[in-house]
Specification:
4-stranded antiparallel β-sheet; 6 strands; globular; two-stranded antiparallel sheet
Length: 121
């Protein structure tokens, strides 16, 4: 049950995505951060976009309620996408240079919620 996130800060990684959706269940390997390949041999640059797969339609619906909330000072737009679109981005050569599997309920390592006001709310 995937979503596309648009508007991510360019320095955002998986930890910020997990924090944004905490405590919702993200499937193992369900975070794909998109990158541009600028030139051959150059380091890829973030697009400010990610794809996130949730464990159920209910989790996806709860995630969509966070549309237009902030990560740092950036508004995050959320869109439903198809499983095929999610998998096409997950399979791309420069989309997941730091792929990491999350265990347990999909939240990753033991979590401490971000400080109050971190997302501008």
């Amino acid at each position: 049950f995937p979503l596309r996130m648009r508007g991510l800060p360019f320095d955002a990684g998986e930890a910020e995505v997990v924090d944004f959706f905490y405590p919702l269940d993200i499937v193992p390997g369900g975070i794909v951060i998109s990158y541009h390949q600028m030139q051959p041999g150059a380091a890829p640059r973030p697009k400010g976009e990610a794809f996130v797969a949730f464990a159920s339609a209910e989790m996806q619906a709860l995630a969509l309620e966070r549309n237009k909330q902030l990560i740092k000072s950036r508004y995050i737009e959320l869109f439903e996408v198809s499983e095929a679109e999610f998998h096409s981005h997950a399979a791309g050569p420069v989309h997941m240079p730091h792929r990491r599997q999350f265990g347990g309920r999909g939240h990753g390592p033991p979590h401490q919620p971000p400080p109050r006001g971190y997302y501008g709310g």
